[in-house]
Amino acid sequence: MWQLFRKTPMWRPRPFRDRYDVVIIGGGVHGLATAYYLGRAGVRDVCVLEKSYLGSGASGRNTAIIRSNYRTPEGVSFYDESVKLYERLAADLGYNLLFSQQGHLTLAHTDSAINGLRVRAEVNQLMGVESRLIWPEEIQRLVPALDLSPRPRYPVLAALYHPPGGIIRHDAVVWAYARGADRMGIAIHPFTEAVGIGTSNGQVTSVLTSRGEIRAGVVVNATAGFCSTVAKMVGLHLPIVTHPLQAFVTEPLKPFLDKVIVSATLHVYVSQTDRGELVIGSEIDPYSSYSSRSTLPFLEATAAHTLELFPCLRRVRVLRQWAGICDMTPDYSPILGEVPGLKGFILDVGWGTYGFKAGPVAGKRIAELIATGRTPELIKPFSLTRFYDDTLVGEKAAAAVSH
Ligand code: PYC
């Protein structure tokens, strides 16, 4: 009888083997998506290593915002593919991901911010992405609770409106990719830490883990927060500085906000989940650290900035706070693909404050690279070599509130 009520596990423990064709380090959305799309491409002798539980890193410590209104053509096409994958992901994975494509507004409080948003709107439109500049009357209609009066220190002057943007249930994305990969026979090993990587004659040969050595010809670094540490295992120094990023959640409220609201000037973004909680985040902390401790100064400043936009929230209680760890590159774009001079070592790193939204496209295209041996056009601009040949992809202007 009890079997009637027994839950089917999302993924199964599998024997720990000492050889796989591909080892993926990092059991978050990027690592698991890579495993899933590898499986779909017929590459199934794969394992995913995660030092803690699945989704315990940046995949479980973000604000789950999905959008493609970036600033560069390279960034827009890349994130546009991710939004499109997210749109059909629940059907592909057979799991409700609560994707709420409610629309995304980036507010402008200064003339120069309006100019920046205008450029983004034009690039977006040229690339076929829905995004346009709107003015206070329309903003007020879309977001009645927003204070559009001249009262705030930085009144709202305009906004970049991106209807396909939205939010998703981030842990469900992680679980569903894990289940999809598991169903194709891919091994998922949580609580298994990579502590070293073996190389020989310019080729990756093995991963040393807390449970023993695994031989492998391809190793993917799909970690966030610790990607520099993993890269150092092969003697590679990445151009990355790691910072904490904090956020908090309020008590649940009746639905009143069905748009994601971002203000770069106030360093804040606000959305309301299906459960009614407000999810509120900020800029990266202004110091480099691997710490994921929350701080009171962050909470005070971010709550004050939120009240500039939504004075109606002044009595709302905060439920919990957290911090994630962000690997910032100099141009605010990720690093994807092979490493010159080291065969078999693949990078899916440098995700700054925008990694969660890229999980599907990064996983799909890294899997394609491994399965075919060819770097897909979509990820070519994000190669490590751009830092040596001066072909940066400057996305700082579109990286949420980080400018
Ligand atoms: O890039 O959309 C974004 C974002 C939201 C929160 C942090 N980054």
How would you characterize the overall build of this protein?
The protein has 403 residues and is of the alpha/beta class. It folds into two domains: 179 residues, FAD/NAD(P)-binding domain, CATH 3.50.50; 152 residues, D-Amino Acid Oxidase, Chain A, domain 2. The protein is 28% helix and 25% strand. It has eleven helices and 19 strands. The strands form four sheets. An eight-stranded mixed β-sheet has the order 5-6-4-14-15-16-13-17, sandwiched between helices. Strand 18 and strand 19 form a beta hairpin. The longest helix has 16 residues. The radius of gyration is 21 Å and the shape is globular. The model has no long low-confidence stretch (mean pLDDT 96). It binds pyrrole-2-carboxylate (PYC).
* Gyration radius over CA: 21 Å
Number of helices: 11
CATH level 1 class label of the largest domain: Alpha Beta
Strand content: 15-25%
pLDDT under 50 segments (min length 5)? none
CATH superfamily placement of the largest domain: FAD/NAD(P)-binding domain
Could you give a short account of the major beta sheet?
A: 8 strands, mixed
Order of helices and strands: HEHEEHHEHEHEEHEEEEEHEEEEHEEEHH
What is the overall shape? globular
Distance between the termini: 58 Å
Q: CATH topology of the largest domain, anyone?
A: FAD/NAD(P)-binding domain
| Ligand names | pyrrole-2-carboxylate
Can you tell me the number of structural domains?
2
- Average pLDDT number: 96
Question: What's the quick description here?
Answer:
The protein is α/β, with parallel strands linked by helices and 403 residues long.
